[in-house]
Amino acid sequence: MVTMYYEKDVNKEALRGKTIAIIGYGSQGHAQAQNLRDSGYQVIVGLREGKSWEQAAKDGFEVMSVAEATSRADVVQILMPDERQAKVYENEIAPNLKAGATLSFSHGFNVHFGQIVPPANVDVIMVAPKSPGHLVRRVYQEGFGVPGLIAIYQDATGKAKETALAYASGIGNTRAGVLETTFREETETDLFGEQAVLCGGVTELVKAGFDTLTEAGYAPEIAYFECLHELKLIVDLMYEGGMARMRYSISDTAEYGDYSTGRRIITEETRKEMKKVLAEIQDGTFARNWILENQANRPGFNARRRMEAEHPIEQVGEKLRGMMSWINK
Ligand code: NDP
Ligand code: MG
Ligand code: MG
């Protein structure tokens, strides 16, 4: 078993009196900045002028340019979109980083794939909440926290781990449990999980089921409920008690169908393809394609986003959810 860290393992003094610059005030940025402030730490926010700047100022933070925030900070937490980080790092962060400061991330992509190459005189760490930003904030306000990962890429001061744990505690992660990993492991497993299972795998599975039913003449509304809506109810049971709890709750007929049909859908061929997907993450093929796609202003990404929005499951879903008062409150 890997080691888990909790509140008792944290030296909160490690960040006391230090200035933490949060760069970016989006999903993770607003949540981490506010949690750290509520935990008693000194937080400033680095941004360009615009909507986020106004929001952070309205939330009571001292907001300044990325360059100025970096030059004042002992810890610089980079929470801009991954595909923007390298350029902002090169122009505004690298020239202003203090020696002995901590450069920190919530995802290892840019460091692991060599898009950001930090100088030798800073600590480089990762503190990655395993949750969307808005839950990082909400769960903290409820007095608990979401689980998180820490990783040490470079330990110039000998205190990198202490800093990472104190930061993780400041955003609430050590209340739930923190696991230590590496930049490589976090980056590759995160990309694989979202591509093969959580996002790519699930959306294609849902659409394939929906298309099969509607092409056979069944009502799209019924197909929507069977293949998309009910997914949440099933996943909630798995989240609470694994597959066993889910299978305990469904009918024996559903359980028998689960056993007899699942492997006809996720076949040996699918598993082989998963291995290829993983290999292309490991050897940098996926990273290169995504970096080049951004440099070309995302033609493929934008086209795909539009086509996906046009799929009939999105039209019927919008109509049905409009009548689900409990979702739209
Ligand atoms: P967002 O897309 O929500 O971040 C957008 C923020 O970055 C905005 O405040 C935006 O400001 C700012 N920004 C964009 N470009 C610049 C720029 N050139 N200069 C200054 N600020 C800029 O990012 P996320 O919170 O989703 O992701 C942040 C990091 O956290 C990523 O590394 C991601 O992988 C990681 N992560 C994200 C999770 C999530 O829940 N989303 C979960 C776990 C990790 P403006 O309004 O001016 O555009
Ligand atoms: Mg990810
Ligand atoms: Mg059913």
UniProtKB/TrEMBL annotation:
<feature type="domain" description="KARI N-terminal Rossmann">
    <location>
        <begin position="2"/>
        <end position="181"/>
    </location>
</feature>
<comment type="pathway">
    <text>Amino-acid biosynthesis; L-isoleucine biosynthesis; L-isoleucine from 2-oxobutanoate: step 2/4.</text>
</comment>
<dbReference type="Pfam" id="PF01450">
    <property type="entry name" value="KARI_C"/>
</dbReference>
<dbReference type="GO" id="GO:0004455">
    <property type="term" value="F:ketol-acid reductoisomerase activity"/>
</dbReference>
<feature type="binding site">
    <location>
        <position position="52"/>
    </location>
    <ligand>
        <name>NADP(+)</name>
    </ligand>
</feature>
<dbReference type="InterPro" id="IPR036291">
    <property type="entry name" value="NAD(P)-bd_dom_sf"/>
</dbReference>
<dbReference type="GO" id="GO:0000287">
    <property type="term" value="F:magnesium ion binding"/>
</dbReference>
<feature type="binding site">
    <location>
        <position position="133"/>
    </location>
    <ligand>
        <name>NADP(+)</name>
    </ligand>
</feature>
<comment type="function">
    <text>Involved in the biosynthesis of branched-chain amino acids (BCAA). Catalyzes an alkyl-migration followed by a ketol-acid reduction of (S)-2-acetolactate (S2AL) to yield (R)-2,3-dihydroxy-isovalerate. In the isomerase reaction, S2AL is rearranged via a Mg-dependent methyl migration to produce 3-hydroxy-3-methyl-2-ketobutyrate (HMKB). In the reductase reaction, this 2-ketoacid undergoes a metal-dependent reduction by NADPH to yield (R)-2,3-dihydroxy-isovalerate.</text>
</comment>
<feature type="binding site">
    <location>
        <position position="190"/>
    </location>
    <ligand>
        <name>Mg(2+) 1</name>
    </ligand>
</feature>
<keyword id="KW-0100">Branched-chain amino acid biosynthesis</keyword>
<comment type="similarity">
    <text>Belongs to the ketol-acid reductoisomerase family.</text>
</comment>
<feature type="active site">
    <location>
        <position position="107"/>
    </location>
</feature>
<keyword id="KW-0479">Metal-binding</keyword>
<dbReference type="GO" id="GO:0050661">
    <property type="term" value="F:NADP binding"/>
</dbReference>
<keyword id="KW-0460">Magnesium</keyword>
<comment type="pathway">
    <text>Amino-acid biosynthesis; L-valine biosynthesis; L-valine from pyruvate: step 2/4.</text>
</comment>
<keyword id="KW-0521">NADP</keyword>
<feature type="binding site">
    <location>
        <position position="226"/>
    </location>
    <ligand>
        <name>Mg(2+) 2</name>
    </ligand>
</feature>
<feature type="binding site">
    <location>
        <begin position="25"/>
        <end position="28"/>
    </location>
    <ligand>
        <name>NADP(+)</name>
    </ligand>
</feature>
<dbReference type="GO" id="GO:0009097">
    <property type="term" value="P:isoleucine biosynthetic process"/>
</dbReference>
<dbReference type="InterPro" id="IPR013116">
    <property type="entry name" value="KARI_N"/>
</dbReference>
<dbReference type="InterPro" id="IPR013023">
    <property type="entry name" value="KARI"/>
</dbReference>
<keyword id="KW-0560">Oxidoreductase</keyword>
<dbReference type="InterPro" id="IPR008927">
    <property type="entry name" value="6-PGluconate_DH-like_C_sf"/>
</dbReference>
<dbReference type="Pfam" id="PF07991">
    <property type="entry name" value="KARI_N"/>
</dbReference>
<feature type="binding site">
    <location>
        <position position="194"/>
    </location>
    <ligand>
        <name>Mg(2+) 1</name>
    </ligand>
</feature>
<dbReference type="GO" id="GO:0016853">
    <property type="term" value="F:isomerase activity"/>
</dbReference>
<feature type="binding site">
    <location>
        <position position="251"/>
    </location>
    <ligand>
        <name>substrate</name>
    </ligand>
</feature>
<dbReference type="InterPro" id="IPR014359">
    <property type="entry name" value="KARI_prok"/>
</dbReference>
<keyword id="KW-0413">Isomerase</keyword>
<dbReference type="GO" id="GO:0009099">
    <property type="term" value="P:L-valine biosynthetic process"/>
</dbReference>
<feature type="domain" description="KARI C-terminal knotted">
    <location>
        <begin position="182"/>
        <end position="327"/>
    </location>
</feature>
<keyword id="KW-0028">Amino-acid biosynthesis</keyword>
<feature type="binding site">
    <location>
        <position position="48"/>
    </location>
    <ligand>
        <name>NADP(+)</name>
    </ligand>
</feature>
<protein>
    <recommendedName>
        <fullName>Ketol-acid reductoisomerase (NADP(+))</fullName>
        <ecNumber>1.1.1.86</ecNumber>
    </recommendedName>
</protein>
<dbReference type="GO" id="GO:0005829">
    <property type="term" value="C:cytosol"/>
</dbReference>
<feature type="binding site">
    <location>
        <position position="190"/>
    </location>
    <ligand>
        <name>Mg(2+) 2</name>
    </ligand>
</feature>
<dbReference type="InterPro" id="IPR000506">
    <property type="entry name" value="KARI_C"/>
</dbReference>
<feature type="binding site">
    <location>
        <position position="230"/>
    </location>
    <ligand>
        <name>Mg(2+) 2</name>
    </ligand>
</feature>
